[in-house]
Design goal:
alpha+beta, Phosphorylase Kinase, domain 1, 2 domains, five-stranded antiparallel beta sheet, 9 helices, 10 strands
């Protein structure tokens, strides 16, 4: 599940509805963006690409509409004002980070301006081949764990300055204490659904382990939908909208969201983080799972498959915390 969204606000990208791997391409026009609008924008600002075939991609994130443009390009348009800061951030920082990373990341070829009735900046990017982990199975989860860990470590250690964690990163890379009230509200709502006493211990342990290391770049949303696979291996990482410079703990959430058993241990060994970072990471994973679970049980989300997945993640986090005591 992506590591985002709070409530149902259209401009809050912290946790979009979970994608279904086999779902058909949704009808064009979400957030008032359709192919006709994109063609007008291209004709006005990038006429060299305006005649290329254009079609929405089969699976896209919540915070942007994405269209494939010809064979080699994509067009990416934010769906609300809360997603706009990510456009300039990716345009500015990804070219500087890319040389230090072991895998391809999005490459911006054209920076679009508001126009044709569309109010936000947008971009034309190079197409990255691959299928997301939502719809493809890796040849080995353990191998994927090591590949993802290698990417994460390279990102954390990249010798590139950048914006400190904060509102633009939805507080990824900052202290999980920003979501203390929300987490405790979810715990109250889920009493009798999960072991709230043990979950409270996990959360308070996260808050009691402040980050004291050297701030580094983090991705902030290493979710299945942001990992591209090709021939069973990790081929690219996309969507740096929640990235910034700060605490890497948020990038350890895949340990419970994607991996189990030997794969989880391989990820843990490869990222080589200390106990405090893992305590904060358990807090991030718990917050996400509790929020999605509470929203789903309140009927605010339509993805019934989120309930068992969230229960699984909560159980794994609680079990690991118990073993660490």
């Amino acid at each position: 599940m992506p590591l985002r969204r709070h409530g149902r606000g259209a401009d809050d990208p912290r946790m979009p509805p979970a994608a279904t791997p086999t779902a058909p391409t949704p009808p064009d026009g979400r957030a008032g963006i359709d192919a006709a609008l994109v063609r007008r924008l291209l004709a006005a600002q990038f006429p060299q690409w305006a005649g290329l075939p254009l079609a929405p991609v089969p699976a896209e994130g919540w915070d942007n509409r994405t269209y494939r443009l010809g064979d080699a390009l994509t067009v990416r348009l934010p769906t609300g004002p809360g997603y706009v800061p990510a456009v300039a951030k990716e345009n500015t920082w990804l070219p500087r980070l890319a040389p230090h990373l072991p895998l391809p990341v999005p490459q911006v070829l054209g920076e679009g301006r508001p126009g044709e009735g569309y109010p936000y900046p947008w971009s034309v990017r190079r197409w990255l081949d691959g299928e997301t982990l939502l719809g493809a199975e890796p040849r080995s989860r353990t191998t994927l764990a090591r590949e993802l860990a290698a990417f994460a470590r390279a990102l954390w250690e990249a010798p590139v300055d950048g914006p400190a964690a904060g509102e633009h990163s939805w507080y990824r890379g900052a202290s999980p204490a920003h979501y203390d009230g929300e987490t405790r509200s979810c715990l109250a709502a889920l009493d009798g659904v999960v072991d709230t006493r043990a979950a409270t211990e996990v959360w308070e342990a996260a808050l009691a382990a402040p980050f004291t290391g050297r701030p580094g770049w983090f991705h902030g949303d290493l979710a299945p939908g942001n990992l591209l696979l090709r021939e069973g291996g990790l081929a690219a990482v996309i969507d740096f909208g929640t990235s910034g410079v700060g605490d890497p703990a948020c990038d350890l959430v895949p340990a419970w969201g994607m991996f189990e058993g030997a794969a989880r241990e391989a990820f843990r060994e490869a990222v080589a983080q200390d106990t405090g970072t893992w305590a904060r990471a358990r807090g991030w994973a718990l917050w996400k799972a509790l929020l999605v679970l509470a929203e789903t049980l309140r009927g605010e989300r339509e993805d019934s498959g989120a309930v068992p997945e969230c229960r699984r993640i909560v159980a794994a986090v609680l079990d690991e915390h118990a073993q660490c005591r």
